[in-house]
Design brief:
- It is a single chain.
- The longest helix is centred in the N-terminal third of the chain and has 29 residues, at about 100-125.
- The protein has helices at about 10-25, 60-70, 80-85, 85-95, 100-125, 145-160, 170-180, 200-215, 255-260, 320-335, 375-395, and strands at about 5-10, 30, 45-50, 75-80, 135, 140, 165-170, 185-190, 195, 215-220, 225-230, 230-235, 240-250, 270-280, 290, 295-300, 305-310, 340-350, 355-360, 365-370.
- By secondary structure, the protein is an alpha/beta fold.
- It has a single domain, classed as FAD/NAD(P)-binding domain.
- The strands form three sheets. Strands 4, 6, 7, 8, 14, 15, 16, 17 and 18 form a nine-stranded mixed sheet that branches.
- The chain contains eleven helices and 20 strands.
- Keywords: Oxidoreductase.
Length: about 400
């Protein structure tokens, strides 16, 4: 075997996974097609949202999904040609919107969220990256009174259950907390314990340098297939092969196609997000979630980044001009400014909004850490720790994050 463990995928989840395994003493090789952290992890909103315990896939989506998709100004859209690929995903999605299933998913997420920042804090300190994450808290703001009240009702019930501090705000308090919003909001919520990265790409680069410093290895290669061999697995690369006793797929949307080649049909959807920089040098005190638009605005090193939206489409489809124009309208509405350098990337999303973290009973030594959706940055460190512990202890009999829940 070339290595003890290979981690495929060098986004923020794969980087954290490789670091967690290397720190446990495993001979670890990280494999990716390009520069670590330069894919989807490059373009996120930068929020470590350790308050986001309840999945975005809510019971109310059963009734609102079709109107949302048909509304040109909705944050959600589904590319018609891609919808045909979502049959299995859709069946599990509808099951996940049942109240009981949704609450069970929330409690699973809560078990991760309670340690999400603690795990990140340890990684940031070890990698010398603490200056890249700010602790100013995060505001989520609402323009529509009805959606604000609905959100508060959920917050009162579930945030209390998970002991997550929050502070309801009126419209004036939202403006005071954020500082640059030009329009009126009905109200909002302030999460004092949330953090944000001022430069997500620089954070990934710091993590990669730390991984190499603790003895990790890196191979720049494209993984085309995986197959089991006696006592391990072999990766077929574009130019050659690599083998290891154990393999972790932290490959986002590519996980689905790699697994399908060995007969595992794991429902993962490509949920694309967009970002752009507000084309004006504004001062913002802290990030704000513009809830009715489905985006966050985050003060980053190179300006205020508006990031979000939810476009179910092929990961490699051309960027949608309609979505970029939507970001432009949001920027003008809230900041009286245009946008520059628009970007699109593809999140990997599960039907229930809970990541896949675990192994496969019929493929010993093959593991996944993927499907984090909107919470890749938030959950990267804690799911890496959870998977590293399961790899050391063996496949868990009871694991709410196991891919087997959808197989």
């Amino acid at each position: 075997m070339d290595h003890s463990i290979i981690v495929v995928g060098a986004g923020v989840v794969g980087l954290n996974t490789a670091i967690a395994l290397a720190r446990k003493g495993h001979d670890t090789c990280l494999v990716d097609t390009g520069v670590p952290g330069a894919g989807t992890s490059y373009g996120n909103a930068g929020i470590i949202a350790n308050y986001a315990v309840m999945p975005l896939i809510t019971p109310s989506l059963r009734k609102s999904l079709v109107p949302m998709v048909l509304d040109r100004d909705s944050p959600m859209s589904i590319q018609s040609s891609y919808a045909l690929r979502l049959s299995k995903f859709g069946r599990y999605f509808l099951r996940a919107t049942r109240q009981r299933e949704w609450e069970a998913s929330g409690y699973s997420m809560g078990s991760l969220m309670k340690d999400a920042w603690r795990c990140w804090e340890a990684v940031l300190e070890a990698s010398g990256s603490t200056s890249l994450v700010k602790s100013s808290g995060v505001v989520v703001a609402f323009e529509k009174p009805a959606s604000f009240q609905e959100f508060l009702d959920i917050e009162a019930q579930y945030k209390k259950a998970f002991d997550i501090p929050y502070e309801p705000l009126d419209g004036d308090e939202v403006r005071e907390k954020v500082g640059v919003l030009r329009n009126t909001h009905s109200g909002g919520v302030f999460y004092p314990d949330a953090r944000f990265a001022v430069d997500p790409y620089a954070l990934s680069r710091h993590l990669f340098e730390h991984y190499l410093a603790i003895g990790g290895q890196f191979e720049e290669a494209s993984v085309e297939a995986i197959r089991s061999i006696n006592g391990g697995h072999t990766l077929t690369l574009k130019d050659g092969e690599l083998s290891a006793r154990q393999v972790v797929l932290a490959t986002g949307n590519a996980t689905k196609s790699l697994l399908k080649r060995i007969g595992v049909d794991l429902p993962i959807a490509s949920e694309r997000g967009y970002h752009a920089i507000v084309d004006s040098p504004l001062e913002m005190a802290r990030p704000v979630g513009l809830a009715n638009h489905g985006v966050f605005a985050t003060p980053m090193k190179n300006g205020i980044r508006i990031a979000g939206l939810s476009e179910f489409a092929r990961h490699d489809a051309p960027a949608s001009r309609r979505r970029i124009d939507q970001l432009e309208r949001i920027a003008r509405h809230h900041f009286a400014a245009g946008i520059r350098t628009p970007w699109v990337g593809s999140r990997s999303t599960t039907p229930d909004g809970v990541p896949y973290v675990g192994g496969f009973r019929h493929h010993p030594g093959l593991w996944v850490n993927t499907g984090h959706g909107h919470l890749g940055l938030t959950l990267a460190a804690v799911t890496a720790r959870a998977l590293a512990e399961e790899i050391d202890s063996g496949l868990a009999a009871q694991n709410p994050f196991s891919p087997h829940r959808h197989l």
